Amino acid sequence: MIWPLYRYILMAAMRDRLFLFILGLIVMIFSLSVFFGNSAIVEKDQFARVFAAFGFRLFGVVSLAMFVITYLRRCFENRDIEYLLSRPIGRLRFVLTHAAAFSTLAAVAALMLGGTTVALETGALHDGVWLWWLSIGVEFVIMANVAMFFAFVMTSASGCMLVVFAFYLLSRLMGDILGILQGDKLHGVRALLAQAMEVISVFCPRLDMMGQTKWILYDMPPDLPLAFVLGQGLVFTALVIAATCIDMNKRQF
Asked: Hey, how many other C-beta atoms are within 10 angstroms of the C-beta on 189?
């Protein structure tokens, strides 16, 4: 890993006021959760907690993806990447340094957003709260590296954002999609499309099984081991980083 480049990426996040933006999100989402919670007829506290947790998870992914994409596309447009690769640093180390820096930013964002949720818990902290916090951290790391991959591959920043958000939406809905496919008897073209979707599901992380807000209320599920959360994060993060390294090695500048 290239430490000067690693520090430069972290400084770029500070310069772009990423964490200040996240703090603003915390204040906004917390205020909205209190407002909507008070407007609920029953279970006001539970509604506010679930709303805040959902908002922290969603906008955490959005803020990380937007920073990663805009930072990398700005580096390409200013030819900073071409200048860095002209030095004897190696493309593999270059990609791994970016992956480490973006993963660090994702972990810090998870600490801020998840830590706020944990701090706002009024009752006893059970295992479900800690599992939710850990799972959104893993989810942030996965999506930060996915955004890095598409930012390296695609040339349009707006198109890259749309693809990343579509990937995130697909990953969040994958469980429902597979449930529909298994519940219906499909024939012809629909059967082929169902098989294609099952193949796609192999390469999509099951984010629908991570960061579920019901864990905050009803404790950790017995059928979801901690090894699944960590294993999925390691496998898909490594897969995305490997794909980025392959693309960078084949690219001509």
From this structure: 8
What is the pLDDT averaged over residues 196-205?
Answer: 81
Q: Which residue has the tokens 């690219």?
A: 251
The token pair at 180 is: 């529909």
Mean pLDDT for 4-30 is: 91
Largest CA distance in the chain: 64
Cα gap 134→59, rounded to integer Å: 17
Amino acid letter, 53 = A
CB 136 within 8 A of CB 210: yes
CA distance 128 to 211: 10
Mean pLDDT of the chain: 86
Give yes or no for a contact between 218 and 131, defined as CB atoms under 8 angstroms apart: no
Backbone angles phi, psi at 150, to 5 degrees: -70, -30
User: How long a stretch of residues is the chain?
Assistant: 253
